[in-house]
Amino acid sequence: MSHIRMTLAAALLAAAFGSQASAAGVFGSSYSSTKAVNCWGINGEKQVDDNTTRVCRGKVGLVVFVNEGETRETISVGRDKAQAGNEPAAQAWFGPSSAALRTIEWRMGGSVPFAIIQRWQLADKSETDGDGRPATRPMLVVTRLPPGPVCHVAYVDVAANPNADELARQAADELARNFKCGTDQVKVIGTSGRAVELAQQH
Description:
Layout: H1 2-24, E1 27-33, E2 39-41, E3 54-57, E4 63-68, E5 73-78, H2 81-85, E6 98-109, E7 112-128, E8 134-144, E9 152-157, H3 164-175, E10 187-189, H4 194-199
Parallel strand pairs: 9-10
Antiparallel strand pairs: 1-6, 2-3, 3-4, 4-5, 6-7, 7-8, 8-9
């Protein structure tokens, strides 16, 4: 009899612990790529390259819309190309020349994505490299996902913050789901730096 009671108590304790863990939220990361091999053209073309406006596979039925300009691009997410192209993130151009790296980190609450984190390179004309090209400054961009609009939530200057990845994940986990696009201002997380300065130029 005592064995039955002990088993029942253990089961109740496990259930209570599981409920608390669920309430607190269990976050993790998954990854995708916007390389051309994972994408298709906006008119359904199967063959595209990395410098083409394109639609790429995301997570859990979402797609990533990569809009290529002459020297700048935007990244947005939606259920399809039309939805992604109408989100605020699709119009979130930076002032200087800029491009996102191809790997996307998806922040997940269980199996549901609620934010993406992507590393960007922004051109800094105040300094040139050995070939006379503008230096590039790295920055992490946190973007919120549906339900609700898709927009930038936070910027993390990579050069100014040795723990930039951890700061971006924390910002995604704590800010993204309640962030109000068009009302709330994009947050600068950690120490600001040249990349964030460039991002805020218009």
